[in-house]
Each structure stands twice: as C-alpha cells, then as structure tokens.
Design a protein that fits this description.
The protein is mainly alpha-helical and 88 residues long. It has helices at residues 9-17, 24-32, 35-38, 40-60, 66-77. Helix content is 62%, strand content 0%.
Length: 88
C-alpha cells in the first residue's frame, strides 16, 4: 500500500490548472435559485449520462430486454459489486 502524503500548493496548482475556468456568471445565477431548482442542471446531466449508457448497452447487448439493460446500467453506476446471484 502506498503511503499517504499531504498535497503541496504546487500539487494543487497542477490539478487546478487542468480544470476549466469557473464561470462566475453561471455561479451567481445558480446561487440566486432556490435549492430545488439549483439541483436541476445536475439532474439533467445524470439523465443524459443514463441515456448514453442505455444506448451503448442496447447496441452492445441487443438481446437484452429494457429491464435487463436498466439492471446493467445500475450495476455499472453502483460502486458495490453484486454477487453472482444478483448480477446479470
């Protein structure tokens, strides 16, 4: 096992430099929304991800039903690995 170490400011700079710049106008607009509406962009993003996975799995496994495809998506997105009796 590798030893944990504290990040230096140089390490953090390398990480931050690779990220997109913050869109301050977008952040201000989101901050003005009530919490229920603030979460909508994240929910829409997850819908798009699931739709993409559904499309990919449907192409890869054309013989599976919609329910089986949905279980594949759940298995893919769930960090806990299912045992043989629960996995497709």
């Amino acid at each position: 096992m590798t030893e944990k170490r504290t990040l230096t400011s140089e390490d953090i700079s390398k990480i931050v430099d690779g990220l997109n710049p913050i869109d301050w106008v977008q952040m201000e607009l989101l901050a003005k929304l009530p919490p229920g509406q603030r979460i909508l962009p994240a929910l829409n993003a997850t819908l798009m991800i699931r739709a993409g996975l559904r499309s990919a799995f449907t192409k890869k496994f054309p013989e599976l039903s919609k329910s089986e495809i949905n279980m594949k998506i759940l298995e893919y997105l769930t960090p806990i690995r299912m045992e043989k009796h629960g996995s497709i």
